[in-house]
Amino acid sequence: MLVPSRRRLRYEVWIVLGLSLGQSAVYSVVQLLDKMSRAPLAEGTSTLNQSRSSREYFDLTYQLLDIIFALVPVLLVLYFLTDQRQARAGAGTGTGAQGSSAFQKLGFNFARPGRDLLQGLGLAALIGIPSLGLYAAGRALGITTAIIPSALDAHWWTIPVLILSALRHAVVEEVIVVGYLLDRFGKFGWSVPLAIMTSATLRGSYHLYQGFGPFFGNLVMGLVFGWLYTRTKRVMPLVVAHALLDIVAFVGFSLFGRAVGLG
Q: Do the beta carbons of residue 48 and residue 226 sit within 8 Å?
């Protein structure tokens, strides 16, 4: 099999980012400039899960479609990361090798559920608790907008959709920004520190619409996650940690935010 050239891989990376989180980063920068040109950041708000329709079941449909289509770039990178020699061998022998190689390469599987869960819980605590303090500091300094994790109306499906939304964000960000990009940056010949810093900076940049506090917080999160991935070669603990953080934020705010005056 011909090994893709670095030039071809660079085009591939730009296409993936243009369809996913690179696009989000560009919009995030524009949204930040828009907010800063209107009023001080401290007076702005950032809503993460918004209602898409005043009609309940159309809103549910839009929410599910957003989640489903956001996962398409993940399927694309899994395809790109699949060893085509294995894929052809699997197709010829009926072993289905093409369905597992990319998942194994990223450690995006259930090969060690207990350890992945424990690592994910530890990471969630390590990142989540300081993030609350950073958010408070950012608000006090006027460099962070008020963040509303959920503005969905209360329906029977609200909590399940928020959980699915959290899982979507976790899978998209960790598979693409950590697993995929670090693999490709390595093939570009980049050093590990440069690859991790670039990945972390991208993570921070698509959170800029929330202000500078979330940018720096997510940059640090990206550094920690990137470093751990280079040690374990498993993206699953990162997905677990990210999902837990978002579930607590989205569902917790939906249930209790307005009651404690955060809404």
A: no
